[in-house]
Specification:
Pfam families: AAA_22. This is XrtA-associated ATPase. InterPro entries: AAA+_ATPase, AAA_22, ExeA_AAA_ATPase_DNA-bind, P-loop_NTPase, XrtA-assoc_ATPase-like. The chain is an alpha/beta fold. The chain is built from 14 helices and 9 strands. A hairpin with a 2-residue loop joins strand 4 and strand 5. Helix 8 packs across helix 9. The longest helix has 47 residues.
Length: 351
């Protein structure tokens, strides 16, 4: 919505992982360094963990985009797969036909494929995203895949990316052999206040931002507090903040604007209308438990203060709905004006 208005060439805060927008914080740089180290070694497991939305998948996409032709990658995002299902999925990601085949036959075909890559001077890399969903026996199956070797060199290498729940799985006593093959691991943390500023400005710059709207230096601390420094939450909030700036015709974004968006989003997500309904329901329920009054007696038993509060809550929600409708109408009016100007410009260029 706001991209063309602010002269941007792309959507800067989209949620889908894109290597173009990868931001190198200290922790993310370390994770990338570990992954690159693992690639240089050509063996062992690299494990990267972190809370939801901290950029694990973006790191993986960035790594895959940087690979040369000597490495043939496959990336899977796992659910709770059993070992046989994992083998089927891995083979399918390497474009090996598995329909109607049992596990043993699939493993045989996978080994043949890996030897074929080796003869071509290539090797396979498996990136397992959302690895916290794997069962312990399925993680062990990954270790077994690393037993495909030639001249004591693995034919396939695996990187595991997952949320914090992955660590207890790996720490299980029966996972000792797997742990011995981990050559590096790291844990991603949310951004600090300075990193949040760098992250937002980096993404904007990648999308062609030239300083409009200007960003006040005092907004980033509040954004950090509200989002917890988690990249995905920052994207959601910053996207909404720029939409607000567009609808309000802002040329700069201040701390007051950030607070306005926080309030607006909080009211949408906190269920203000539901609060009003709950208040009304509790008042009614309280009166019904007395003597089950009939008809107009119910209204008499509701105190004036209670009814006033319910009406006030409902009125507040309706005011917010009206304000959003006004903003939508304002946006549509701008969009129509913009399209009309583009159409007239096109007609003039043809004449």
């Amino acid at each position: 919505m706001y991209e063309s208005h602010f002269g941007l060439t792309d959507k800067p805060f989209k949620l889908s992982p894109d290597p173009k927008y990868f931001f190198s914080s200290a922790h993310h740089d370390r994770a990338v360094a570990y992954l690159q180290y693992g690639l240089s070694q050509g063996e062992g497991f690299i494990v990267v963990t972190g809370p939801i939305g901290t950029g694990k998948t973006t790191i993986a996409r960035s790594l895959l985009a940087s690979l040369d032709d000597s490495i043939v990658p496959a990336q899977i995002a796992t659910t709770k797969l059993n070992p046989e299902e994992l083998v089927q999925l891995v083979a399918a990601e390497f474009n090996i036909s598995v329909e109607g085949l049992g596990k043993a036959e699939i493993l045989r075909k996978l080994e043949q494929y890996l030897h074929q890559l080796n003869r071509q001077g290539k090797r396979a890399l498996l990136v397992v995203d959302e690895a916290q969903n794997l069962l312990a026996e399925t993680v062990e199956e990954l270790r077994m895949l690393s037993n495909f070797q030639l001249d004591d060199r693995p034919l396939i290498q695996s990187f595991l990316l997952g949320q914090e729940e992955l660590k207890p799985i790996i720490e299980l006593p029966e996972m000792e052999q797997f742990r011995q093959r981990i050559i590096a691991s790291c844990h991603l943390r949310p951004f600090s206040g300075d990193e949040v500023q760098g992250y937002i400005e980096h993404r904007l710059t990648q999308a062609g931002w030239e300083g409009v709207p200007a960003l006040s230096s005092d907004i980033f601390g509040r954004i950090t507090d509200y989002t917890g420094g988690v990249p995905r939450k920052i994207n959601i909030f910053a996207d909404r903040l720029f939409l607000y700036a567009f609808l309000e015709d802002l040329t700069s974004i201040s701390a007051e604007d950030v607070e306005a968006v926080i309030t607006e989003m909080g009211e949408e997500l906190s269920g203000s209308l539901q609060t009003a309904r709950s208040a009304a329901a509790s008042v009614i329920a309280g009166n019904q438990t007395a003597e089950q009054p009939q008809g107009d007696d119910l209204a008499v038993n509701i105190s004036g203060d209670e009814m006033q509060k319910v009406l006030s809550d409902v009125g507040h929600v309706l005011d917010q709905v009206i304000q959003r409708k006004i903003k939508i109408i304002r946006y549509l009016d701008k969009l129509i004006t913009h399209k009309k100007a583009e159409s007239e410009k096109g007609v003039r260029s043809l004449s």
